[in-house]
Backbone:
């Protein structure tokens, strides 16, 4: 039956696609759910101001977006991948293997990662990276030996914090945010607390020590959220001890439900992120397939429009929504105008 | 009381059967009690179901109904020639060069004059602060008007623009002054201005057709978003499902039921059809991605692909219901047709199929309703995201251009950061439920009016 079904549908398909085989006239974008709000704002304004149709933007996470980006060149592959982290060498290689060799990397600005809890919940108001490391690490060095994390409440970690059960909702591994969280909070905290030194003293090499710093406990005190920030918000809503990791823009849209904590004594805001004082921020990117420029109408115009001062500048709609605009925007603009690919500036 | 005391002292104590028929003996009473208990359980089960249904419907209606109204602000905008058409020759190409950002100043000054005309003092120093009251879609709305009416440049035209989502939320009771304490998008002073504008009759809340007919909007302007384009996406998908699954499903079941020999091969097919009906829909999504997009290279996010995937999902349902209704046609009808000399095919197409038609149609409509509400397979073929932003240009573009579907749109809205989108997700659920209910009612009517019983 399923064979019959398939052949029948394939025949029907052939008939329809033969009549409808025409060039795609819409830009297709996929990737990071952190970049999605910005991309959708730009796509909408692009559709309003140009004669091209509004581009379509899908989400799904930086990694899955880049994976689809690297599937190959052609009309039924995406033109742009949004990412909340830089593309990895492994991914560049996968791209090259599939024939995607010329990639233009565009940095659109910076985004902060904030740590928030229920508005009327416990007094989680100030954290250090080392607090998070000690609360979430799978194993901690005690007297030169690695033991399973014994900390049960935040007060165990740092007496200044409330004696509340540890319950953290952190982004899952398919999110680019997770990597930034590991690098700027867990590994940083690992170094700050001296745990890294102890691990090395205990005989781990640099890589193994770093992996041990990043390893998150699996006893239920830390929960990976694979969905979007709305899922994290729902978890926090139903869990008074809960602490969640959010993007700054998401927090700013939900200030009536969430209370944000400072990190290393600095409150997150577009200003403190732009000045570099707030420690947990990361650049946001999108990647363009150069081979699609000139084939998909409006692709270059979209990229130029995205990084124009009107959009990505300090007074543009993106920074209004929560993006920290890039001080080197002018360089990015000329890079997009010249279609400079990644190999060229390395 | 015992039986003995009722039947009187004269009677010999005999087991239960001796009593009056009007009196129930022990065993009967026990059986009756068991039946009563069972009825009570049944009623409790129905009651619990009903309570859940009522709570669900109540929540949906309470959360969703506000999405159908929207707050508008009446704004007389002076379309200044100096800003929109510097050369003054009304050349469309030149007017187009003024992007929506160029219209910000016009809107700010229009707001200022509106306020001063209404006698409202602005608490802000900067005029741009006031523009937070208004949706950023206003600039695009005015620009579209100018491009279609270039002759109106220089005149003052009154527009009804959308209020920003937080002002709208305040009108609907969703946003309170306390909630705005840490909010950088709006301050409590804005709400004071909004209150005065409402008194002056500039700010109104009314039914919003754009929610039902409009396109999706970006994250920063939930007030503009509508479900119309994804409704078209669903429509085109359902067309594909209907056109493919009805003939294929009916042909397959007529063959299997009327012509195919009974042997191990048809048995295997039968078992597999029942299995297919139980396969989770996400599996069909993976299949669709692998076969239709990666192998046949059909466009991504296209309703055509969505329809093909849902066809695979609907086929087993249709085949099973069609076979059931073919089985329900009594064999005497076939025998009579064959007896007067009709061929096997004539007996099927002239007699059996018409009699089974109501059942087939009912099954098809229920299958379509199931497909209409399906989101999971669409996730994998790229129909979830900021996609339903363009109306299709025609029939071909309706099938091939990227579009979303109603349940996928609702899912997408529920994910977005601004709480105003949450309200729209509930509103979308109401619309989807209305569609599903209509389809089910049609199915019931078809069954009631045309079904024949033997």
Residues:
């Amino acid at each position: 039956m399923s064979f019959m079904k398939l052949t029948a549908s394939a025949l029907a398909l052939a008939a329809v696609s033969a009549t409808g085989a025409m060039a795609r006239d819409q830009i297709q974008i996929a990737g990071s759910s952190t970049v999605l709000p910005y991309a959708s704002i730009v796509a909408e304004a692009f559709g309003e101001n140009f004669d091209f149709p509004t581009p379509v933007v899908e989400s799904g996470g930086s990694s899955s977006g880049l994976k689809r980006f690297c599937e190959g060149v052609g009309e039924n592959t995406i033109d742009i991948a949004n990412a909340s982290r830089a593309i990895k060498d492994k991914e560049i290689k996968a791209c090259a293997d599939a024939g995607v060799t010329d990639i233009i990397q565009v940095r659109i600005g910076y985004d902060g990662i904030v740590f928030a809890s229920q508005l009327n919940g416990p007094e989680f108001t100030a954290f250090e990276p080392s607090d998070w490391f000690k609360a979430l690490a799978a194993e901690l060095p005690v007297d030169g030996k690695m033991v399973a994390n014994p900390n049960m409440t935040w007060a165990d970690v740092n007496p200044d914090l409330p004696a509340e059960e540890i319950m953290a909702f952190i982004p899952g591994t398919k999110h680019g945010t997770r990597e930034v969280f590991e690098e700027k909070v867990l590994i940083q905290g690992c170094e700050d607390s001296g745990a890294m030194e102890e691990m090395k003293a205990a005989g781990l090499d640099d890589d193994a020590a770093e992996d041990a710093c990043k390893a998150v406990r699996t006893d239920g005190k830390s929960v990976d959220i694979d969905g979007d920030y709305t899922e994290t918000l729902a978890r926090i809503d139903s869990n008074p001890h809960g602490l969640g990791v959010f993007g700054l823009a998401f927090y700013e849209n939900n200030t009536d439900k969430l209370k944000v904590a400072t990190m290393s004594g600095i409150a997150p805001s577009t200003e403190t992120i732009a000045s570099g004082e707030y420690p947990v921020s990361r650049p946001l990117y999108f990647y363009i397939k150069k081979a699609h420029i000139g084939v998909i109408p409006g692709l270059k115009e979209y990229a130029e429009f995205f990084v124009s001062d009107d959009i990505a500048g300090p007074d543009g709609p993106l920074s209004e929504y929560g993006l920290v605009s890039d001080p080197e925007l002018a360089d990015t603009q000329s890079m997009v105008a010249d279609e400079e690919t990644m190999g060229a500036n390395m | 009381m015992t039986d003995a005391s009722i039947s009187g002292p004269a009677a010999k104590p005999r087991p239960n059967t001796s009593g009056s028929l009007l009196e129930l003996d022990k065993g009967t009473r026990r059986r009756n009690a068991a039946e009563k208990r069972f009825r009570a359980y049944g009623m409790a089960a129905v009651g619990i179901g009903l309570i859940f249904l009522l709570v669900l419907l109540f929540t949906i209606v309470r959360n969703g109904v506000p999405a159908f109204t929207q707050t508008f602000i009446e704004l007389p905008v002076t379309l200044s020639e100096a800003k929109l058409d510097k050369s003054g020759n009304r050349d469309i190409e030149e007017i187009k060069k003024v992007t929506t950002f160029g219209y910000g100043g016009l809107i700010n000054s229009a707001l200022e004059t509106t306020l001063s005309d209404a006698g409202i003092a602005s608490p802000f120093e900067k005029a741009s602060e006031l523009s937070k009251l208004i949706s950023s879609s206003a600039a695009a709305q005015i620009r579209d008007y100018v491009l279609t009416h270039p002759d109106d440049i220089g005149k003052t035209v009154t527009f009804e623009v959308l209020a920003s989502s937080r002002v709208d939320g305040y009108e609907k009771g969703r946003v309170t002054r306390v909630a705005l304490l840490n909010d950088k998008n709006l301050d409590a002073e804005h709400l004071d201005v909004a209150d005065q504008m409402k008194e002056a009759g500039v700010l109104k809340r009314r039914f919003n057709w754009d929610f039902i007919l409009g396109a999706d909007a970006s994250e920063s302007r939930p007030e503009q978003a509508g479900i119309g384009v994804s409704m078209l996406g669903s429509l085109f998908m359902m067309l594909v499902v209907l056109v493919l699954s009805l003939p294929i499903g009916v042909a397959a079941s007529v063959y299997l039921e009327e012509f195919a020999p009974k042997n191990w091969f048809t048995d295997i097919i039968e078992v597999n059809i029942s299995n297919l009906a139980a396969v989770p829909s996400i599996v069909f999504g993976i299949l669709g991605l692998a076969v239709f997009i990666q192998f046949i290279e059909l466009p991504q996010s296209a309703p055509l692909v969505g329809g093909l995937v849902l066809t695979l999902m609907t086929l087993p349902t249709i085949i099973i219901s069609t076979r059931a209704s073919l089985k329900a046609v009594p064999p005497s009808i076939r025998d009579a047709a064959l007896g007067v000399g009709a061929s096997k095919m004539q007996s099927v197409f002239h007699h059996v199929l018409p009699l089974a038609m109501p059942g087939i149609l009912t099954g098809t409509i229920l299958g379509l309703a199931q497909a209409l509400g399906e989101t999971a397979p669409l996730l994998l073929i790229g129909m979830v995201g900021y996609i339903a932003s363009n109306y299709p240009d025609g029939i071909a573009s309706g099938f091939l251009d990227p579009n979303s579907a109603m349940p996928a749109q609702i899912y997408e809205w529920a994910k977005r950061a601004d709480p105003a989108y949450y309200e729209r997700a509930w509103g979308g659920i109401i619309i989807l439920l209305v569609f599903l209910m209509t389809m089910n009612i049609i199915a019931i009517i078809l069954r009631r009016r045309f079904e024949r019983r033997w």
In short: The radius of gyration of chain A is 23 Å.
